[in-house]
Give the backbone structure.
Amino acid sequence: MKRFYAILTLCCLIVPVMHAVEGETPGTFSVTVTGKKVVFSKGNLQYQASTDTWRFAEEQYDFVGNASQGNVYEQGTKSDNEQIGESYSGWIDLFGWATNGLNRRNNAYKPYSTSDNYADYIIFGGASEGLDGTGHSSDWGMNSIINGGNRHQLWRTLTMAEWKCIIESRPNAAKLRLVARVNGVPCLILLPDNWTMPEGMNLNFSNINYTGNEISLAQWRRLEHSGAICLPAAGIRTYKDGEPVLKAFTTDGYYWSATPTTGERDVFGLHFNSSAIQADDRFERCIGASVRLVRDYEGFISNMPHYRALNGRFSVSDEQQVTFAQGNLRYCVFNNSNMQWFCPEGQWEAVGEDNVYVSSAYKGLIDLYGWGTSGYNDKYPYMTSSDNTLYGEGSNDIAGTDYDWGEYIPMINAHRTASEQWRTLTQDEWDYLLNRRPNHELLHTLGTVNDMHGLILLPDDWVQNGHPLPMLGPNDWSSNDYGSWSEMESYGAVFLPAAGRHDGGISPDMIAATFNNSGFYWTSSANIEDLQTAYALYFGINGTEAVHGAIADFVNRSNHCSVRLVRNAGTMGVENVPSDKVQCAKFLENGQLYILRDGKVFNLQGVRIQ
């Protein structure tokens, strides 16, 4: 059998279903010259303070306005932006910049904040910090939106450059935007990239005046079905003598971007009226402007599961392989009665210093936890007690119990059989993976992905010289530096970010010292000789010595560490042979992928060929 080593692309065997996330519109819009696309939400963002609820406007042309203008009602009562306040039971849709409700060291961070001091809206003390800062996003899309998928971090705010691309630089941009009156409301209409005029309709692209295009509700339904976006001229909230003033309803639209200017006072935004459209206008941070969120388009409009397994297989014993989750386990403290767990998009993503704010009252993301804090038996992920005996259950391991995050969390195990359940690796399994599986010394090292330090794990069947990828360098952060991880991930590689640890929120200094320098990952194994501690995987640079795979470390159970879950993958039917004799390789022949294991050839279903 002649064997050819070639570039291999591993594809998911699941066929994507063509259906949209709730709240998405059907059109796609280019936001970079290289073709990155987004889909828009179905309406402007609205907030109800009395219930702490976010939603999208029911109609794209809806806007709140004030007591006399606007078309948004709550139980028959006209909503009014002038009534903005902590207990207001109507809806508002004009927000100061970075007011998504999460404290990012900005004095004004509540959706109902009305400070007229621009400095109160600067996040993390830095005027150059954008809404999309890594690990501490202040984007409104961080919130769970009741008619937008009802799950946090599904949506985001466009950057200034993305607004400019839609308005000015995408192909045929001038013929894909116009102002109009939609069902009587002055609006800016944006049309998707490959838009075709519905039969029988006629739009005037040269007339910048709203009245140049009078679009009835019936006509708008046809346009909306074709992917058109309608941004209402919802006005602005400014200030006079320290008091909020609402103006420009039905004449001007002001929409935030995620991008600050180079100065402290202003942020870029989209501004339009009956005479101009400007995608890079400057708004003072303290004004109240509209928010229209988007989602990145990934080749098809998807309702992808937010918790998936990577394709690499890793031996954790002579008989068992596992696959890893796509990223570290995250918890969103938005609604304690509806715990929200998920994984980030990228394996390298870590929350960082926000973990020190953890408490039952904190509203934000965390990804470091005390041992066994799955939520079962009141062991909540935001526990901060320093009493180590409150974590877990005495001398018992959490493996196979509801204290294991993977065993207990219903939302990540929905519709899975018992054999498909997520779980936390034991101490012995980590030890086998890192120190005893075949070729283990070649299958893990320290490295960097997108400027994040971490531990690189390679799957059992990795053959370094057989892959069109860089050789793994020495065991340090800089020798294995990847600006993009997608190709490595497609070959089954796993990256564990050095997300640090802390002591339950009491000392911010600990996470400041360990974040991006050390990784601490819980195992499911108790230390029966000391019930104050449990086993954890540790990696990092200790002085000048690189340390990775140190799973004999004991960590106080009240310390907060990372969690990366796995699920059993079997052995693909491949025969087991003693570990010190196993040699694996992949190869292509006539377009088919095979596995060579210990001199025997198997197909991907584990059937031996010869």
The chain has two domains: 29-297, 314-568. Residues 314-568 form one domain.
